[in-house]
Amino acid sequence: MVSLVKSLRNAILYKGSNEFNKQELIGILVFTLKLMDVKSAKELIERGLKSGVIEERNGVLVINEELLEGEEKRECLRDEMASYIARVLGWSAEDVLEEAGKLRERYGELDEKILVYLFGMDKGIDMSRFKDRLEV
Length: 136
Known about the structure:
The chain has helices spanning 4-15, 22-32, 38-51, 65-89, 93-101, 104-107, 112-122, 128-131; strands spanning 19-20, 54-57, 60-63. The protein is mostly helical. Strands 1-3-2 form a 3-stranded antiparallel beta sheet.
């Protein structure tokens, strides 16, 4: 699962602006920064639009940097939980995130950190250390 925050931060740093047209942002993410393929870039933009991190104004995509910081804190917790689960299971954190993402089929459109938490619970891992830090 590609990090929304890291990808958008890198695109902003590369361009020096938080405003893009859609094709330009896809081109930067795919061809310039080589972070993902075209399909993943389009999905990332859709996730950004749904979460409000990206706003569309007159055909221009504007990345809200304040919301991006909030999203960064959520991803930090998600990554911390994924690393913990990976250590317990003997997996890689990327594999944990990928498998947790598959829970969308069962639980629907939940926040990624909630999916990772549920994945850990599903695997029988004691996730109580993260319970108070989850914002539902």
